[in-house]
Amino acid sequence: MSLYIGGAIAIAIAASKPSIVSSLVVVDSTGVPLGSLPEVLLRRSIELPAQLGSVKLEAASKMMQSSFYNSFFNTRNVIQVAKISLEEDLRPILPQIQSPSIILWIENDRFTPLRLGQELALGIKGSWLRVVAGEYQELSMFRPDKFVPSVLDFIDEVERLI
After folding, report:
1. Phi-psi domain of 4 (left: phi exceeds 0; alpha: psi -120 through 50; beta: other)
2. Ramachandran category for residue 44: left, alpha or beta (phi over 0 → left; psi -120 to 50 → alpha)
3. Short-list 134, 132, 142, 144, CA closest to 52
4. Exposed (0-12), middle (13-18) or buried (19+): which is 133, by Cβ within 10 Å?
5. What is the CATH architecture assignment of 2-161?
6. Which candidate, 58, 94, 106, 127, has a CA 20 to 30 Å from the CA of 14?
7. How many Å apart are CA 4 and CA 96, to the nearest integer?
């Protein structure tokens, strides 16, 4: 399972080492270039106020703590991840993925827009695109009640196929 840059890593592993990947869950991932930094920041600044109603304080607090920590103490890594997210294009290797795959995307996510998930789903043969309606980024933290059933349904379906 993967989120953001972890998704790009999981996609690369599934494409390059298909024998070790039995199934792939990609959630609102990078892997298709996000656009320029100003574009991405604008989309995110529009999204943040819109998702305030669904924010769980404990999850938001942990996310902010880790963001601040990484920004100050792992600055080079943050810059490197941002660069990969903005520029890395994994579309050419998507057809190499052989495992059952679900592309789980959040309808209103402005940071990684739905069109990116659609491109990933088109590139991975036989993948399932599941769109969670009416939600924003950070679904797994702020709305686990919607996130977890989607992943468990996919795992159940994969197990039935095996």
Report:
1. left
2. alpha
3. 142
4. exposed
5. 3-Layer(aba) Sandwich (3.40)
6. 106
7. 20
Strand partners, 160: none
Tokens of 54: 């669904």
Q: Which two tokens stand for residue 144?
A: 């686990």
Domain ranges of the chain: 2-161
With vertex at residue 108, the alpha carbon angle to CA 44 and CA 50, rounded to the nearest 5 degrees, is: 60
Three-class DSSP category at 12: helix
pLDDT recorded at residue 51: 61
For residue 129, give the nearest of 111, 150, 110 by alpha carbon.
Answer: 150
Per-residue pLDDT of the chain (162 residues; tens, 9 = 90+): 334 678 888 899 999 999 999 999 898 888 887 777 787 777 667 666 666 666 666 766 776 677 677 677 777 776 676 676 677 888 999 999 999 998 988 888 777 889 889 999 999 999 999 898 877 676 677 778 888 888 888 888 877 876
